[in-house]
Write the structure tokens for this entry.
Amino acid sequence: MKDDGLEPLFERARGARIPVNAALPAGFADRVTARHQFEVFRERTAARASILSVSAALVIFAAIVSLNLNAITSLGTDDQDPADDVAQVLWDSAGN
Amino acid sequence: MAEDEILSLIKRVRNSDEAASKSLVELIYPNIIRIVRNHLPRREAEEDLCQEIFLKLFSKLHQFRADMPFEHWVSRIAVNSCIDHLRKQRIRPEFRWSDFTAEQEAMLDNLKNSAILPPERSPEEARALIDRLMQGLKPDERAVINWLHLEEKSVAEICDLTGWSASKVKVIAFRGRQKLSSIVKRLEK
């Protein structure tokens, strides 16, 4: 690649002084720290909110399931035909 | 600062110590601004980009495993952020002879005609010309050309800095240099 005619340009450019003012701009560290803390706070709040919403959804789901279970079990006892009980009493265990 | 002191500072930052966070910013700012200035052709967004790099760095600090020097880890994040930033900009300018200064035009003339630069050509103008021409390259090509041919880093150093394989670095360098050469060849008065 060195014969592409660009080497003299690179060689000259390597001697260039790049003005690097590495001094920290005023308040930069404060701004970065504040933004970082805000991001952390936002992430934590979002995490808490999602945990809360999942827990609330679980509680509601459990409540609905338990209500339905109660309804199903109570339906089961009401639906049983009283004739079954009579038949159980009348017939002996041998089926006579 | 010794690596042990840096590690204890990182530990304090992870425990949300505000003073330690500020000290860390002060400690690594010179390294980050140097990388940003070497990779951004335009100066206006450098402070914003530095802030983004620091935020990324803080959010990834829990991933730092001390299996490489902290400075390398920081440089890798800064370099990748610069490349991402340049990708978003998508600047692929068309070059016209009139876009260059008189001295840059003279340098291009020298290169096209004799491939020799007379001693009176200034290094700063040469650097500005290369920066301008490199705007026609992809961000990763620009970064690799910069490290390899201007900062004179070795392929191994670039691999350390970016986490790329040596063959990837060589391919990017080759393509970048070819493109740069064809940009110069296509330029006509």
In short: Chain B has nine helices and no strands.
